[in-house]
Amino acid sequence: MSVDNKGKRPGGEKNSSTVVVYKKSGSGKSTAGSYYKRKLRKRRIALNAVLSVLASLCILAGAALIVVYNYFHRINYQEIDPDSNQKTSQTSYNNSSAHFDPQNSEEIKTYSGTLLNDPMVLNIMLFGEDRRYNSNVGNSDTMVIFSVDTRHRKLKMLSLMRDTYVDIPGYGENRLNAAYTFGGPALTVSTIQKNYGIKIDRYAVVDFGSFKKIIDTLGGIDIDLTSDEVDYINWQTWINDQDEYSDADPAYKEDIRSQLKYVWQTTVPETDKPINKNTLTFIKKDEDSEPTATVHLNGQQALWQARNRGEDGICSGDDFTRTKRQRDVISIIINDLKNTDIATLLSVIYEIGPYITTNIKTSEITSLAGDLTTYLKYDIVSEAAPSVDSISSTFYFSGEEHPVYINGSFSSVILIIDWDDFRQQVAEFIYEEQVARKEESSQ
Question: By the 8 A CB rule, do 115 and 197 touch?
Fold first, then answer.
């Protein structure tokens, strides 16, 4: 170190001697050796402490990885190959030239071009399965394309309407949800790709029992409900808690349901209902909406809200309002997860794992979980395909003018007017500006 003429360091501090002299001890031995030994011993102790901490951390990390792997491994893995004969591309989107003419009885024109696929968009097909009466084959009235769009930093949910009239490979024309009954997730994914022209990367099936476990493990959800929606949840909860009703055969259940929907509000005391409306304040938030109140729902109650498509005499609605309720519930779950600690997340995975069937591998789930905090910051957008607002322009319902018969019986289905245009709308929702309109691409 340099010293100025006055023996001071730069800055004016008094400088001490640059030579250290060690005094001899009484034994005549220099204390310098003892000094360095003590110093070396301290360093060894510190190094051993650091190594011990690192070893402990490695053991804990390894144990944590084993625990996480075991948690994720509880999820049922089942591979499917719905598109072994389908061509896929990450760079192009080719509209088919087919056009469905509603004025004739020709077969539905399905997609024969290249499936649209973007490496920055992960499309997961979500199925909500309802398996009843010890049946080996469940129904899936809940079909949502859940897209993790890292290109636009969005989480997207697109509900596919179950009554959409489509061509099911090997089975001909039918409602979309019939594909699940005929062949489960594999056939349904194949049907969606064939008719909608979108590449489905992965799928996940969640039965209704697991849905309730998710909500209960999270401690329930808070959601805005109308007075009629509260009545519907209370009515469904009450009627399904009756032993004579729950143990009855399906035909008898329908008869009881038909009777009770008209007498329920006068025969069931308010105090017997799970949700006490007297404690709620319903507020009209804008001119075009009904008054709502924030209600805390448990798993069973949330399931009834997600399945609510209206009930004559209790709550209005249809399949379009039901799909919106489903997307609203999923959005609330996602938003709640933003404030959930890792222990609760692992608890959710551990509890619901056995009830989920998917072809997402454990390694992929681990990778997705690692980026979960990033994905939870994305904006959430949702829509139905087709949208109720597009009626008469995109689709219409079968009727006297254009009847549709399934198994010899007249069926109410959604008929898409122009499949090319409809596929384009679906693609633009999922991929946005990455998909150009036909007229734009031809210029």
Answer: yes
The candidate with the shortest Cα–Cα distance to 352, out of 208, 244, 237, 186, is: 208
Strands (E), 187-305: 202-207, 221-225, 293-297
Pair 386, 164: CB distance under 8 Å: yes
Chain-centroid distance of CA 186 in Å reads 19
Match 């009450």 to its residue by tokens.
238
User: H/E element holding 146?
Assistant: strand 139-149
Alpha carbon of residue 6 to chain centroid: 75
Helix (H, G, I), strand (E, B) or coil at 443: coil
Closest CA to 326 of 165, 184, 162: 162
Q: Of 122-136, 175-189, 256-270, 327-341, give the lowest mean pLDDT range.
A: 256-270
Distance CA 216, CA 336 (A): 13
* Residue 231 backbone zone (phi > 0: left; psi -120 to 50: alpha; other: beta): alpha
**DSSP per-residue letters across 146-179:** EEEETTTTEEEEEEEPTTBEEEETTTEEEETTHH
Tens-place pLDDT, residues 86-96: 444 443 333 33
Q: Which one-letter DSSP state was computed for residue 315? A: B
Whether the Cβ atoms of residue 195 and residue 166 lie closer than 8 Å to each other: yes
Distance CA 156, CA 153 (A): 10
Angle between helices 32-73 and 342-352 (to 10 degrees): 30
Closest CA to 325 of 301, 354, 352: 301
